[in-house]
Amino acid sequence: MNTGFSAAPTPWRASAAQVLVNDLAAPELNSADLHHLQRVLRLRVGDHVCATDGVGGWRICAFLGSEQLEELSEQHQEPPSEYEVTVGFALVKGERPELIVQKLTELGVEHIWPFISHRSVVRWDAEKAEKQLERLRRVVHESCAQSRRLWIPKVGYPCAPDQIPGAKGLARFDQVRSQGAVLAQMGGRALQQSDHTVLIGPEGGWDQTESAGAICVGLGQHVLRAETAAITAGVLLTALRAGFPRESLR
Question: Domain residues of the chain, as ranges?
Answer without folding.
Answer: 12-77, 86-241
